[in-house]
Write a structure and sequence with these properties.
Layout (H helix, E strand, L loop, with lengths): L2 H14 L5 E5 L9 H7 L3 E6 L8 E2 L13 E7 L8 H11 E12 L18 H10 L9 E9 L9 E8 L11 H5 L3 H8 L4 E2 L6
Parallel strand pairs: 1-2, 1-4, 2-3, 4-5
Antiparallel strand pairs: 5-7, 6-7, 6-8
Helix pairs in contact: 1-6
Protein name: Methyltransferase type 11 domain-containing protein
Pfam families: Methyltransf_11
InterPro entries: Methyltransf_11, SAM-dependent_MTases_sf
Amino acid sequence: MHDTAMMSGALFGKVYGKEGMKVLDVGGLDVNGSLRKPFELLLKIKYTSLDIEEHPSVDVVMKPGDVFPFPDESFDLIVSTSCFEHDPCFWMTFREMGRIIKKGGYIYVNAPSNGPYHEHPGDNWRFYSDAGQALAYWSGKTLDGKSYPVKVEETFHILPPPGGFWIDFVSVWKRVDEKEENIRLSNEFKMKYGPLRKALTEANLRTQGIIYVQ
């Protein structure tokens, strides 16, 4: 996990979390860092790590695309950092995240918009400014009689520090009752400063509301 991804994930917990909450880290295998310490030790939030590989840092192991082994509305927060680019079926993963997040709970995803090929075990996707709303629309679709509506609370990109190259796509969703009908957000919404983006800016990270990667 690179530095901006670590800082953003930890600040999400500080901004949106409260002591005593439960958080699930999807793709939580410790690769050059983990969010376990900031959530569990610093914020006193009960942390569970889920991944496709067995490792001492992983609590629950499952295959990509499988149903998560948790009941509906099990977690107050769900995070996924530097994972979705490797997930062969991230849209199914996101829908499961929508199922197990509590009503009023928050989902956080940080994934790259650019950068070199980095296999773990594969490297499949990159995410741009409209990805957050597209996932919200998908999660709200009724399939087999069920839907899991979420609403984008804020979405933006973190630009790389001098000498760096990763541009991080960041989005935060809230579990709601009303399905999204639009497949993209307005440019005005994408430019707004939500609480996490404000916190990152105050921490001197450069953020951008809309970005087009060549």
